[in-house]
Amino acid sequence: MQDARSDTTPAQADATAQTTVYFDGSCALCSAEIGYYASRKGGDTLCFVDASRGDAALGAGLDHQTAMRRFHVRLPDGSLASGARGFIAVWENLTGWRWAARIARLPGIIHVLEIGYRLFLPIRPALSRIAARLGAKPAGDRNVRS
């Protein structure tokens, strides 16, 4: 896994990882999920950038405030996918999750996933606090492998 705290630029990430995942490293739940994805087969092809760091290199079209509000993924062509589309982009890179990406691409499914994601966003802070109480740690509080 690329170091989530690195200063890798999106251009450098494209050269080494193809897909860059921007996540809220201050969120214990988000960090646990990213740690899970990074540990899966194919996770080493993704570059993970902790958007909660003020010095995070987010690239064109993505500012700090936007990156912290929703999950974003920069695709190899430089375009951004967010929300449900961002998760699908991650799943497509993970051998054990490609089936989920295929199902998500069926007609109408992505819209249902996006609605679910939007319903999740307001309760994310509470779920993150629960995850922290259960032992999940924000990215800055754990060792992240390079």
Tally of extended strands? 4
**Distance between the amino and carboxyl termini:** 6 Å
What structural category characterises the helix and strand content?
Answer: alpha+beta
Number of helix segments? 7
The shape is globular
Percent of residues in helices comes to 40-55%
Helices and strands, in N-to-C order? HEHEHEEHHHH
Query: What's the mean pLDDT score?
Result: 86
Oligomer: single chain
Poorly predicted runs of 5 or more residues: 1-17, 141-146
Rg calc: 14 Å
Largest sheet: 4 strands, mixed
* Spatial ordering of strands, largest sheet: 2-1-3-4
Number of domains: 1
Topology overview:
Elements: H1 10-17, E1 19-23, H2 28-39, E2 46-50, H3 64-69, E3 72-74, E4 80-82, H4 84-93, H5 98-104, H6 109-120, H7 124-133
Parallel strand pairs: 1-2
Antiparallel strand pairs: 1-3, 3-4
Helix pairs in contact: 2-7, 4-5
Describe the structure.
With 146 residues, the chain is of the alpha+beta class. The protein has one domain. Helix content is 45%, strand content 11%. The chain has helices at residues 10-17, 28-39, 64-69, 84-93, 98-104, 109-120, 124-133; strands at 19-23, 46-50, 72-74, 80-82. The chain has a 4-stranded mixed beta sheet with strand order 2-1-3-4. Strand 1, helix 2 (28-39) and strand 2 form a beta-alpha-beta unit. Helix 4 (84-93) packs antiparallel against helix 5 (98-104). It is globular, with a radius of gyration of 14 Å. Mean pLDDT is 86; it is low at 1-17 and 141-146.
